[in-house]
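User: Could you write out the 3D structure of this protein bound to FE2/S2 (inorganic) cluster? I've included everything you need below.
Assistant: Certainly. Input first, then the structure.
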Amino acid sequence: MGYPHHPHQRETTVLSQYFGDAEARTLDGWKKRGGYKALEKALGMAPADIVNIVKESGLRGRGGAGFPTGMKWSFMKPGDGKPHYLCCNADESEPGTFKDRELMRWTPHALVEGCAIGAYAIGAETAYIYIRGEFTEPLYWMDKAVKEAYAAGIIGKNAMGTGKRLDVHVHKGAGAYICGEETALMNSLEGRRGNPRIKPPFPAVSGVFGMPTTINNVETLIASAPILLNGADWYKKMSLSSPKSTGTKLYSVCGNVQRPGNYEVVMGFPFKEFLYDLCGGPPHGRKFKAVIPGGASVPIQTMEEAEATLMDYEGFVAQGSMLGSGGVIVIDDAQSMVSVIARIARFFAHESCAQCTQCREGTAWTTKIMERIRDGQGTHEDMDTLLDIGEQMTGKTICVLSDSCAVPVASGIKKFRAEFEALIPGGRVHPVIAAVA
Amino acid sequence: MTPDLVGGLESPDYASHDRAAHEPYAPVFTGEVRRELDELLTHYPTKMAALLPALWIVQRERGWVSEEGMVEVADLLELTPAYVKGVVTFYTMYHQHPVGRYFIQVCTTSPCGICGAEDVLKAFVRHTNTGDLGLTSPDGRFTVIEVECLGACGFATPVMINEEFIESVTPEKVPDILARLA
Ligand SMILES: Cc1cc2nc3c(=O)[nH]c(=O)nc-3n(C[C@H](O)[C@H](O)[C@H](O)COP(=O)(O)O)c2cc1C
Ligand code: SF4
Ligand code: FES
């Protein structure tokens, strides 16, 4: 990537085409590039028709779970007499992921437009953009864009002169990964501690302020505008493999790779070509060893799995992992998998909100045991203990942060067991570990 | 790799923070600042929802969130001070103690860790004379902490100094970065 942004010729830049283009940040610049045409079109349509186009397009949530967006929007029942809310999840804290930051710092008006379209489609008059507190620069540009849009009458009491009210507010988080979980975000927005809520009730029934709420990721909402302008068929065609995954996806690439950065490719793109051609392969003199393709909470892939992957929701699952948030963490042969996983475990232990015993205790113990193995003080039973703890942590808690900690550990032990064993006193020293130590 | 951004981002007023450390608590929400809060309240259907923004204002004006600040916010939003404290302690970004004039946060989560973040962290601790993580240097200028993923993993190692975000920091760049700070 780098600035100015030079996309690779194999990228398909629908959402990222204005990265690095400073003029696109201003209202005038955004309008010159066709901005707010989609909102204008949306406001002339019936909300149900917008929902149908988005449903038809096959767009799925880009926040991690991949839930079909049109279907989520259709859960919001019109005419129930209650205020509806739209929340935009801009808490982006999943290690490996930094696409929403880039979208907000280069195309803030795209998000204002996406929020306005989403809000109108679900019958909401208010949208909140919840941005993590560390994102000072995205906060700055989003604030500015919202103010410009209000001043120009694009949003506000009489959005684009249609007599409809559409308010968009930016809300700043205060440091807590867990506030990216949808119900924790709603609690935080209400001025509470960011603890996830027990579901049901689901947000569409009782969300923020107890009212019907839809929550979507930044990338999801931004994608709705080109879909409205170009039609569902156009979006559906951007798919090389599974028909259940459509459109383009932004991937954030980091770790041991020549060209880290954000890349946008169509669904089903070959991961091997992506890693070696677009991202430039491993650093000089090294080899790739493993990839965590969807943010720190998805299973680790071996290179064999990664190189056989077609990049879409189904493709990553078929090769032992998940698309997740699109945060691709690349690990080379100079790293110890045990150290990498121990640090991931520490992340989750730090970020657990501590409501559920399995999560509070499980993340802490997983970290302790991983770190003692890393430090050469583990035993052969430790691997079994970790897998046991992982099982206790899975499917038993209020949210899936607990599962997210167990996943990389279990997949690491399964796929890189030799590296664990090499660190156990009296065990065989794995050549990689010998080189790193 | 760092683009021409940050134009217009202003650092918080740390002078008033020094004053607050030596004088009895002076209310934050008067005049312009009170009007800012009143405007914020129009964004939400409840007063409580303005809690995080109000605490941010306290921290901007004073450099940290003191017990007195929490009481003031509690009064304004019709909450109890204990409730406000419960919220403050949940989040990592509100300072419950005064910190150095430059608050330095270095990401060391795995993606940055495998790109050498630990060495960047060590370089900051060494060159700022803080002695250890979380401590403030004897001259009151620096506090260095380790943070979890800052959401900029492709620009390892990202470092936040107050409101400013610096990308692609290496240990060699640390002395120059510190020299830029008054
Ligand atoms: C622990 C945890 C953290 C999450 N963090 C984020 C996040 O930072 N950003 C995000 O968009 N979704 C995050 N999610 C997913 C959200 O709960 C939610 O599914 C998503 O925002 C829905 O938007 P979408 O349908 O557009 O994907 C997180 C989920 C969990 C369990
Ligand atoms: S699983 Fe962990 S983070 Fe999620 S609600 Fe329970 S304790 Fe909190
Ligand atoms: S891991 Fe360092 S910014 Fe994400």
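The longest helix of chain A spans residues 357-374.
User: Perfect, thank you.
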